[in-house]
Please model this.
Amino acid sequence: MTTAAAPRAAASAASFGIGHTLRLGFARIGYEVRGYFRQGDSVFFTFLFPLVFLLIFSVAFSAQTFGSPGDEIGAAAYYLPGMLAAGLLLSGVQNLAVDIATERSDGTLKRLGGTPLGPVAYFIGKLGMVLVTGLLQAALLLVVAALAFGVALPAEPEKWLTFGWVFLAGVTTCAILGIGLSSLPRSGRSATAVVLPIVLVLQFISGVFIPFSALPGWLQTVAGVFPLRWLVQGMQSVFLPDSFAAMTPSGTWEHGLTLLVTGIWLVFGLVLARVTFRWIRKDG
Model:
């Protein structure tokens, strides 16, 4: 009886441990979301930043049209997919990398390390926060584009299905990469200076601000290594006319490659986060 009871007890303990971790993690999401919206700089530079740039480009290029004859669209419609993809990068990579580095520097992570929270529950809270804020940000961009600039949103269910999986792949990958990248800054004070240039460069070479087809071939190749270029193209396949696919290097939207590249970076981010995450810096 003792031998038979041991596996049951171990399974029960493991189940309780997983359930306890999930409960702590989901409870942490609300705390993280409230903390996010209390930080004015984070709200502006990650949540409102894509909206501000959408407004700027839509007004600055209001007299210009994009696309081939018969499929012309305005500036707001053209830049909307790039801003949606950039929002995922900012909310995930930039926000989490800076936020976690700051929490490590000011002693917050050290204090959390002495609680029952655990790294997995902590990560669930951060991932949930990025998912919630990313959804709100995307909804805000879509509403402003449709109401303020008359952008026609897709009517086909398959387009929204594509938007769903591109969004989930992007938000998860960017959040995990943000957690992994948070170990790079040596202090919270230097975090923005370390992370911001990476984020800005990726936006400029991935088709967010500059049409991807206008970039030199070698720069397109470099950008193709990183997930943002594929997230932009994935969003473009949802919100731009199908004729715009001819402007991509392959002439197609390449959804399979988008999923492959984001999947590779997701795995890389998980390994990086697992290897580098510490409640306190080893050299601190």
Summary: Confidence is low (pLDDT under 50) at residues 1-15. The two ends are 50 Å apart (CA to CA). Residues 17-276 form one domain. The first helix runs from residue 2 to 37.
